[in-house]
Amino acid sequence: MCLGVPGQVVEVNGLVASVDFWGVRREVRLDIVDQPVEPGDYILNHVGFAIRKIPAEEIEETLALYEELLQAAESDMMSADVHGELEATAPEGDGHD
């Protein structure tokens, strides 16, 4: 199973965005996102690509769900998948192996 991970867009430079994932910033590609994004928007990230802009009315519920998943034990498949997604966008050598 593969899940996307929500994050808040901090900055946009062409087809690359700096996105905040629970206090950790990662660069995310915008090549395939379904709508234009700007700082303040939330996107769904999958292995370094924004795949969907999260509608404003869904953000609170989406973040609450992922907070639950991140708190779950890593032996939980969904929690492990979310942690894996966050690590997949980590730059090499940042200590998040």
UniProtKB/TrEMBL annotation:
Alphabetized GO MF terms: carbon dioxide binding; iron ion binding
Superkingdom of source: Bacteria
Any single GO BP term: protein maturation
InterPro entries: Hydgase_assmbl_chp_CS, Hydrogenase_HupF/HypC
Family stated for the protein in its record: Belongs to the HupF/HypC family.
Name of the molecule in the record: HypC/HybG/HupF family hydrogenase formation chaperone
